[in-house]
Amino acid sequence: MVRPSVEVQLRDDTLTAIERDVLSGDGEDDRFTGILEASGLQIQEYVGDLLSTLSTAKYKMLGQERTITGWAFNPLDLQALEMLRENGTNGAFLFKSRSEIEGFLGAPIVTSLGLPVGRAIVADWNQAELLPVGDDELIFDGKNRTENNTFRLMFEGRYGFRTRKPFDFVSVDLLG
Which among 1, 48, 59, 149 is placed 20 to 30 Å from 125, CA to CA? Predict the structure, then answer.
């Protein structure tokens, strides 16, 4: 009865780790080289303030006739965007809803802890591809059960990842 709930938790943890690697993995050991480390990726430096930087990144894509299908933010960076006020710290909020932020950015937003604080990605996410190789498997290893009453559960799967057009991704520096 415990097995299905453990399998769900381990699968979720595995997918979270894959998401982190896909976004910012360093390619060391068994990790992917993530989008932020890919060669050919466009870079948008911080240009004076957060809104100007985001707008410049958006128009970097649009000016090259690239498709924008979405933005990825660390949750704390999205919060900083939501908290922007007209007069610095005491005016009305600039955005009344997430849909207004998405309207300004020109595409939907997702959040991920796989991105470091201060870094966002705007992209045509259709150009990223996660490639499962075979089925995932929950493995029970009970060989130590008789010696010290322990066992191991492992969730394993094989995946590949590629970006078909790295130039369709812009890494955006949000902090300067």
Answer: 48
Mean pLDDT value across residues 71-81? 97
Q: Which pTM was predicted?
A: 0.83
Q: Give me the helix-helix angle, 98-105 and 75-82, nearest 10°.
A: 100
Q: In what order do the strands lie in the sheet with 169-173?
A: 42-44, 169-173, 119-123, 70-73, 109-111
**The one-letter amino acid at 58:** K
Q: In angstroms, what CA-CA distances link 133 with 125, 136, 161?
A: 21, 9, 11
Distance CA 95, CA 117 (A): 21
157 three-class SS: strand
**pLDDT tops 90 at residue 144:** no
Buried residues in 109-138 as b, exposed as e (16+ CB within 10 A): beebebbeeebbbbbbbebbeeeeeeeeee
Interatomic CA distance for residues 64 and 39, integer angstroms: 18
- Tokens (6 digits) for 99: 């849909």
Q: Amino acid letter at 142?
A: G
What pairing do the DSSP bridges indicate for beta strands 109-111 and 152-163? unpaired
pLDDT of residue 120: 98
The number of residues making up the chain comes to 176
Q: What is the rounded CA–CA span in Å between residue 79 and residue 119? A: 13
